[in-house]
Amino acid sequence: MRDRRGSSISTPAALLFQGGIGVVGLLAIWLLDIPVLSGGLGLTEAMLFGVVGALATYVSLLLLTRNSWLFPDDLSSQMQALYNFAVSFRWPVLVTLSILAGVGEELLFRGGIQGWLLQYTGPWTAVLAASVLFGLVHYVSFTYFLVATGLGLVLGTAYQLSGSLELVMVWHAVYDMMALYCLLRYPHWFGVKT
């Protein structure tokens, strides 16, 4: 049995917060009449490519963060805090949080922000700006900002090239699930003390 210490955030509060991000994204898309890229792929294709993309992205970022010359900060303290948060929830809640993050954050950052910027700038400026904002929202250290911005660039590029918001929603949700699974199952990979 895992120790249930860590998070001072209740399950309803965590779910409400993560779900609220999606509501903000939907409201922005609706109120600002932002065109959303959707339907570039069928649902089965979006799910398949999303899972494959998430696996490739997670493994790549995991390997890249091992290079101290590329990422100057030690991520172990951020991983310890994330571990302490995640260990306090059961798996159904963590899966739900991952799905809400995938859907909600992609509605906001790719559908809303990147979509809005795309109306006024070129596609790669929109991808870059939305990715930096995604990194800033996830900022806990410079290295974590770089990792989140890198993930944002991958997701933003996938959205731009595929024309499928569903693809990046699946990609993001599966990425989060894999990240939480590895962190909780193999905490020593991340320098986490259990």
UniProtKB/TrEMBL annotation:
The chain crosses the membrane at residues 12-32, 47-69, 81-104, 116-137. InterPro entries: CAAX_protease, Rce1/LyrA-like_dom. The keyword Transmembrane applies. It holds the Pfam family Rce1-like. GO terms for molecular function: endopeptidase activity. The keyword Transmembrane applies. Signal peptide: none annotated. GO terms for biological process: CAAX-box protein maturation; proteolysis. Keywords: Hydrolase, Membrane, Protease, Transmembrane, Transmembrane helix. Residues 91-178 form the CAAX prenyl protease 2/Lysostaphin resistance protein A-like domain. This is CAAX protease self-immunity. It comes from Marinobacter excellens HL-55.
